């Protein structure tokens, strides 16, 4: 019976066999390690948590600051024509009007808050009143933005010419490119399992008002890109204002 033994080979052959075996073992270990990283990556979960936290921040702020009684004026009583006319007394008119008006989402305050704080973010934000009137929409200011972003593992670096790159830099770029390519593939597989039919804003608003909870779903847009939509009610004392 013949058995494999390194001693049967020359020293040079032994070194080659050892190096090849080490390289193969390292390659297999690297493949398994990267595969584990790819399937356990939490990019999508982290992204969703980030969006939910930002959404809670917006709704909490508007609930505390933008729900108020809004004064309106009677067109027939804009000017006080006669002194002592209680019907057209401005102070009495304002007090009476203020007490009779029900609290509602202030469109001006809402627009100022959204456009002052969220125009430069990655999210496209819309705010609707309870009657479905749209108060703010960042898409009306800028072009449509991606709502799901699959982040690369590497940082954005300045481009270098191949002449100035060493072996390590070339290897690192190739590794990151392949890693990100496979990461995108696995992320898309996850999204395919989660994506659903796209619902328009009216249906989304109706469901949000009905449940009084955050709802979300993933869908494909007209360009076949995955996007996600989150909707959260603006609540105050268990009443939905937007």
TrEMBL record:
Keywords: Membrane, Transmembrane, Transmembrane helix. The chain crosses the membrane at residues 15-39. This is Uncharacterized protein. The lineage of its organism: unclassified sequences, metagenomes, ecological metagenomes.
């Amino acid at each position: 019976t013949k058995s494999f033994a390194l001693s049967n080979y020359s020293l040079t052959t032994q070194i080659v066999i050892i190096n090849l075996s080490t390289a193969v073992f390292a390659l297999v270990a690297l493949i398994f390690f990267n595969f584990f990283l790819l399937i356990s990556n939490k990019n999508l979960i982290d992204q969703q948590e980030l969006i939910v936290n930002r959404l809670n921040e917006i709704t909490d702020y508007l609930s505390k600051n933008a729900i108020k009684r809004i004064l309106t004026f009677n067109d027939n009583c804009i000017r006080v024509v006669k002194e002592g006319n209680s019907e057209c007394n401005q102070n009495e008119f304002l007090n009476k009007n203020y007490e009779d008006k029900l609290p509602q989402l202030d469109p001006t305050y809402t627009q100022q808050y959204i456009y002052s704080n969220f125009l430069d973010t990655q999210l496209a934000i819309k705010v609707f009143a309870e009657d479905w009137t749209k108060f703010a929409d960042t898409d009306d200011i800028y072009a449509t933005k991606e709502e799901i972003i699959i982040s690369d593992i590497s940082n954005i670096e300045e481009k270098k010419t191949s002449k100035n790159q060493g072996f390590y830099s070339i290897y690192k770029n190739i590794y990151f490119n392949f890693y990100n390519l496979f990461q995108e593939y696995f992320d898309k597989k996850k999204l395919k399992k989660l994506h659903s039919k796209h619902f328009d804003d009216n249906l989304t608003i109706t469901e949000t008002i009905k449940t009084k909870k955050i709802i979300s779903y993933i869908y494909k847009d007209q360009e076949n890109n995955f996007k996600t939509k989150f909707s959260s009610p603006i609540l105050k004392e268990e009443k939905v204002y937007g």
